[in-house]
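Treating backbone geometry as a discrete language has practical consequences that deserve illustration. The amino acid sequence and the backbone structure tokens for this protein are reproduced below.
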Amino acid sequence: MTNDPIVQEVRKIRHEIEQECQQDPDKYYQHLKALQEKLAGRLASHSPKPLAAERRGNAG
């Protein structure tokens, strides 16, 4: 397996956040939730695409 610098950076940042949250999963979750709300305008949001059968009108 190769060492991907982007994956390494993501893991490093995740580890730093875990340290800030004192390894507490609830604090980690709250941190991520707050970040999601703060950046809501920058996050992609897409409606699910209909299944092929639904597009053809053969649903069910």
